[in-house]
Amino acid sequence: MKIAILPGDGIGPEIVGQAVRVLKALDETFEMESADVGGAGYAAHGHPLPEATLKLAKEADAILFGAVGDFQYDNLERHLRPEQAILGLRSNLGLFANLRPAILYPQLAGASTLKFDIVSGLNLMIVRELTGDIYFGQPRGIRTAPDGAFKGEREGFDTMRYAETEVRRIAHVAFQTAMKREKCLTSVDKANVLETSQFWREIVIDVHKEYPEVSLDHMYVDNAAMQLVRAPKKFDVVVTGNMFGDILSDAAAMLTGSIGMLPSASLDANNKGLYEPSHGSAPDIAGKGIANPLATILSAAMMLRYSLNRAEQAARVEAAVQSVLEQGIRTADIHEPGLKLVSTSEMGDAVVAAL
Ligand code: NAD
Predict the structure, then answer these.
(1) How far apart are CA 200 and CA 219, in angstroms?
(2) Ligand 1 center–CA 83 separation, angstroms
(3) Residue of the nearest CA to atom 40 in ligand 1?
(4) 1-95+268-355 and 97-258 share one CATH topology?
(5) CA distance to 29, 149, 159, per residue, from 145 (Å)
(6) For 274, phi and psi rounded to 5 degrees?
């Protein structure tokens, strides 16, 4: 098994370092190779996604990614900015399915802004389509309006579109994910207004015929936003398009109250994936040794489950994280009075010890 290690910028190297220790503790035979990405790629090679990094990512069985971005790169031209590395990896590797679990560990229920009984025990999964929709649809631009009520004025426009193949393949990922969980899938769209959503719904209903064990329901995105904060435990797996998923997955993440705890996976059609924490590079705390590495460690657990087919080892890592939380060990972002405050590397020590 070859794993590409792409630490990136800010806290990326610190948190990825701890996840690598956990993987090594599980299996010394993992072949791991590191490469620069994001701002670090630009600084060393003049591009956020250097050719050698892309080659390594293509060759590997899975990719463990830290985070990219730093204020010092904010004024670069768009195509050289660190965030372009993620878009480049997604499109070059065909990573069209984004899996973001929102799990509220009982030990951290106090971190949520919602009432304890609404969120305690929350465990939902958002499956977001990642490479299509209005974010990529053509035509798009800013122009002088050629017609309509505001003809002659400047206008901005984008195009929402989904091809049948795109909807089918994300629907399959979602139904298969549901099969591994509680077998309930909610497809979120805006079919009361958008043609693209009507088409989306039609295809999801058709794919459902291949998964009769999964119960499927449909929800408009505005209602889904309300239900996520009203009764989030009613959801098991949610599948939705790129833009709705972008927004809902952040809302779902915040139900847990702790961004340092949330892993994510982006998969291709063969379950090869890129695994990264849901948070960014946190330049405000980089180099201080206080970042929470658990989201990255839990991303490594997802990698074991989805790309490396090692569900038992994934469960061991997740149990080790639970055990560390039960012992009252906390990094600063999830710390409460009376509990043990630890650094990034001490948190790594604790997870390795629990393993
Ligand atoms: P951020 O997620 O980096 O940070 C938001 C807040 O959460 C900060 O206060 C930070 O200190 C804290 N935080 C984040 N992760 C933490 C952790 N593991 N432990 C403890 N605290 C943590 O978001 P931002 O500040 O909006 O963005 C910073 C940079 O990250 C920007 O350059 C942005 O473009 C980039 N970014 C990258 C990704 C990615 O690589 N996938 C995602 C989002 C943002």
Answers:
(1) 12
(2) 12
(3) 67
(4) yes
(5) 60, 9, 15
(6) -110, 130
Catalytic residue among 158, 183, 233, 246: 246
Q: Compute φ and ψ for 97, nearest 5 degrees.
A: -120, 120
151 known ligand binder = no
| Cα angle, residue 253 at apex, residues 343 and 286 outer, rounded to 5° | 30
190 assigned to active site: yes
Domain boundaries, the chain: 1-95+268-355, 97-258
CB of 186 closer than 8 Å to CB of 224: yes
- Per the annotation, the verdict on 233 as an active-site residue is no
CA-closest residue to ligand 1 atom 5: 282
Structural contact between residues 253 and 100, judged by C-beta atoms closer than 8 angstroms: yes
Query: Vertex 220, ends 218 and 224: CA angle to 5°?
Result: 90
Top mutation candidate among 16, 87, 281 for ligand 1, by most atoms within 8 Å of CB: 281
Q: Which residues pair with 178 in a beta bridge?
A: none
Which residue's alpha carbon is nearest to atom 4 within ligand 1? Answer: 282
| Residue 182 identity (one-letter amino acid) | E
Tokens standing for 136?
């990529």
CATH superfamily of 1-95+268-355: Isopropylmalate Dehydrogenase (3.40.718.10)
Q: Is 90 annotated in some ligand binding site? A: yes
How far, in Å, CA of 276 to CA of 261, rounded?
A: 11
Q: Are 112 and 255 in contact (CB under 8 A)?
A: yes
Give residue 253's pLDDT.
85
| Annotated binding residue 222 | yes
Six-digit token pair at 135? 């974010």
Residues of the chain with pLDDT under 50: none
Sole residue written with tokens 């997604």: 90
The one-letter code for the residue type at 53 is: T
Catalytic option among 61, 135, 183, 233: 135
Specify the pLDDT at position 111.
77
Closest C-alpha among 119, 126, 107, 12 to residue 64: 12
Considering the domain delimited by 97-258, tell me its CATH architecture: 3-Layer(aba) Sandwich (3.40)
Three-state SS at 48? coil
Distance CA 260, CA 88 (A): 25
Nearest residue by C-alpha to atom 43 in ligand 1: 280
The answer to whether the CB of 101 is under 6 A from ligand 1 is no
